[in-house]
Every structure is written in structure tokens, then in C-alpha cells.
Amino acid sequence: MHSNISVNAHALPIVKHMIANADKLRLKIDRLDNGCTVIDAGIQALGGLEAGRLIAEVCMGGLGTVSLTHSPTFKHWPLTLQVHSTNPVIACLGSQYAGWSLSHGEGKGAFHALGSGPARAMATKLKDGVEKPVEDLYEELGYRDVCGETTIVMEVDRVPPVEVIDKIARACKVETDSVHVILTPTSSLAGGVQVVARVLEVALHKAHSLHFPLGNIIDGSASAPLPPPHPNFVKAMGRTNDAILFGGTAHLFVKGGDKAAETLANELPSSTSRDYGKPFAEVFKEYKYDFFKVDAMLFSPAKVIVTAVESGRSFHAGELDEELLERSFGD
């Protein structure tokens, strides 16, 4: 799936727009001593839904559109987020997926975050004397990006230490003053939007886990209701996950024939997981807050449509679950 599209170059105008309109978007812009630009969208700054919408588009490397609308699908939760990308594999897996583990220090003051966004596509490391992508996924995608400036998004509630910024700059082969770091705490309005905007990405990620050929996914769109924020981190995270697991719909357009499209549709919905059936915060608590014990197949939209473009046939699977959504959002 070789592509000459630059997710960093396409995301940059959105980042510059956010900086230029920081007052209107209620963002706090800081330049650290090493020259890095930090965009705070919910720690000391108030941020908001529009900031979250723009951050979601940055996460997708400027290759996706994210919009907010009202929908009658769920009686109590009309505010709905819609995502579309004509380059869904690169936008979602090559940029938006939170796959770069970044940490510094040990013990109580240690910093740990999963980086998402276009910087991932530039990050490399030396392995056995050979330069490789930081994430193995890029070998599979056959995609790498090169750009003079880069942006990374972290779902955290504090500014990363300079050592983490230095690590990002080194891995991406840019100066630290060419790094933009966007911070969105889970409990913030912007944070909620940028997580729910992953409704298409989780469908792509699960398709990848099911070994569906990514090159056969040629277009995609998805939607999910936007949950109210919650000051408690676990409940906030639970609600954003549940928006997708119980309220998300994804429509993928694929090549490769009817049988493969139908199989993908049947295996994609969140309800195929052993852990489906209760709000995510409850599942997480039962696993003693160990994210890696949760069945990875849970993370997918509730309802899917897969259209086989060669025949024009569409396959539907899964159902929206208003009762579980209500338990999560109304708690």
C-alpha cells in the first residue's frame, strides 16, 4: 500500500489554524525552552467541541473530515460525530491510531502516554544496525512519511517532560522547534471528541486483526453519539469507548468479492467479543484496570455495513444498543 501522501504536511495547516485561532478555540499555546510548541486543549485551557473536532482531523493526518451534527438515533443523546476518509487505512492506521508508547522516568512521577497522529509515520529507531519504523505496523502498511515539521497528540493531563519531546524529535529526524504536541485529557470536551472520532479507526484496526487485506479497504465512513464528559478518568474513558461499542456505526467499501465482504461484516461488530454486554468502565474494573486483559476484539463499532464495490452488494451486521448506552452515559 505504498503512498506518497504526507500525513504531516496535510495535518500542518489545521495545526497552524488552531494556533492562530487559540483565543477563539479556548486553547493555551506554549513554547517550551527547547522550542517545541505545546497546544493545551483541556488541562489549563478550557478547549471545547470544536477544538476536539480539529484535533481529530489532525490525528487523521488531515486525510479525514470530522463533523458534529444532531441525529434522532438515540433519544437522550442526539449530538453525533461523523467521520469520513477517502484514504481510511493511512488516515486511521497510518496516523490516528494511538500506537507509539512514550515514557520517561520511574515510580510515582513517571510519564507515560500513547502517541497518536502524524508523527508516528515519521518515527524510526535503530534495530540491529538497521533503521526501522518505531512501530512494526508501518512495515506492513508499506508507508513512511518525511516532513520538516511534525505533530503528535497525547491523551494526558500534564505536559510531557522535555526528554519525551527530545525523543520524538530524534525519532522523527526534526529539530525540537519543529515539533507540535497537542494535549487532550480524557475528561475534557476536546478529549471526548477526539476519542469518539476513532469510530472508523477501530473498525479498521479490527479488520486488520481479522487479517482482512487492508489494501482492499478503499473508502470508509462512521458515526457515533458524543457522550457527556465525566470528571472521573475511568468513567470518562468508559463513556467514550461505549459511544463506539454500543452506538457506533461504520460503513466500509471494499474490494475482494462478496464472500470476503460478508465474512468481514459478520466478524466486525463489538458484540462478537466475549467481553460485550456491560459498560466499559465495569469491564475495566473487573480486569483490575489492566487494559491488556480486555478482549481486543471488543473495540469496534456496534453496527457495520460492508459494501463489496465489485458487485454492489452490502452486508449488514451488529445492532445499536440504546439500553447499554444509557447505562453508560446516564450513570
Report on the structure:
The protein is an alpha+beta fold and 331 residues long. The protein folds into two domains: 143 residues, Methenyltetrahydromethanopterin Cyclohydrolase, Chain A, domain 1; 134 residues, 2-Layer Sandwich (Methenyltetrahydromethanopterin Cyclohydrolase, Chain A, domain 2). The chain contains twelve helices and 14 strands. The protein starts with 6 loop residues before the first helix and ends with a helix. The mean pLDDT is 96. This is Methenyltetrahydromethanopterin cyclohydrolase. Belongs to the MCH family. One of its GO terms (molecular function) is methenyltetrahydromethanopterin cyclohydrolase activity. It catalyses: 5,10-methenyl-5,6,7,8-tetrahydromethanopterin + H2O = N(5)-formyl-5,6,7,8-tetrahydromethanopterin + H(+). Catalyzes the hydrolysis of methenyl-H(4)MPT(+) to 5-formyl-H(4)MPT.
Please outline what is shown here.
The protein has 331 residues and is α+β, with helices and mostly antiparallel strands. The protein has helices at residues 7-20, 22-25, 49-59, 88-96, 137-141, 162-172, 189-196, 199-209, 233-247, 258-267, 280-286, 322-329; strands spanning 28-31, 37-40, 65-70, 79-85, 100-104, 111-116, 124-127, 130-133, 150-154, 179-183, 217-225, 249-254, 303-308, 313-318.
